[in-house]
Amino acid sequence: MPETRPLTDLVAIPPVINVGLNAARQSTMLSLLGNPRNNYTDDCQAVEHPGLKRLIVLKDLGIFKVRGLAPAVDSLERVLGDIRVRAPHVHQALGSAGMLCARLVRGSATSISNHSWGTAIDLTLNGELDRRGDGKVQVGLTQISPIFNDHGWFWGAAFRTEDAMHFEAGDGMIRKWHADGLLGGAGGGTAPVDDLLTMGDRGPEVSTLQTRLNVFGAGLEVDGVFGTGTRAAVVAFQRSKGLTADGVVGPKTREALGF
Ligand SMILES: [Zn+2]
Question: How far is the CA of 122 from the centre of ligand 1 (A)?
Answer without folding.
Answer: 5
